[in-house]
Predict the structure.
Amino acid sequence: MKTLKIAIQKSGRLNEKSVELLKNCGLNFENYKSSLISPVSNFPLEILFLRDDDIPEYVQDGIADLGIVGENVIEETEVEVAYLQRLGFGKCSLKIAVPNNNDIATLADLNGKAIATTYPVILGKYLKEKGITSDIRTISGSVEISPGLGLSDAICDLVSTGGTLKSNGLKPFADVMSSEAVLIGSKGSENNDLIQELMQRIQSVLRAKETKYVVLNVKRDNLDAVIALLPGVKSPSVVPLAEADWVAVHTVIPERDFWDRISQLKQAGAQGIVVMPIEKIIL
Ligand code: AMP
């Protein structure tokens, strides 16, 4: 069977979460910072550690079958790859930001202005769509300092908390795109059996992350009211307790409506609610 290759970021923001995801999929490999390639001992897979800007092209050209990279990098490199799975980490947005004290009030005010960015392709498309003609200045880093140095009137850069903008006297002005880490594959890779197996593992880890395992006790009289509040994978397990008129209910609850659900369950008579993380959910 052909050994697959997956390219992940060698160092930087996405490296740790990418390694964690693959390890949570049960893959055994060494994460040596010095090596560029690491074989997986229990799956026909090799991990390539690369600069994230290079990952889309490696995948497009089939040198790597799969890659984990930010959507922003894929859009900027304009490669032809298959988007296989959003991964829920590395979330950020590409924003135009302007100095706190400035005369830019509407998008049209960016006409004729200089905007510094490391994302000229994405910014160029955005401005074209909006009918704005600006002078895009492509620089390779430290974009936030360029208005202060007189190099540009505005910037277009990735923002997650906004802290870097603030500390450079800038404020967000317009959202250009939002991004997160995604699993990409070479065109047609969706049909490969090994890739499908790996994707099932990844999806089971992601599903588990979004969900909590909940065990609670409830009087039999209140059982129907409690069950009505539980989405569960299928239907909840109901286990008799030593006290004859009480039962324990085991179920899973989506993380996003967790606290609402817990208070509703308490009101319906649930007691001794125990909440646990889940490692994997295999459907
Ligand atoms: P880096 O390690 O700084 O090269 O960032 C790698 C990737 O992390 C970027 O291409 C984005 O997809 C993602 N990312 C998430 N939050 C941010 C942020 N605040 N600034 C830069 N990149 C971010």
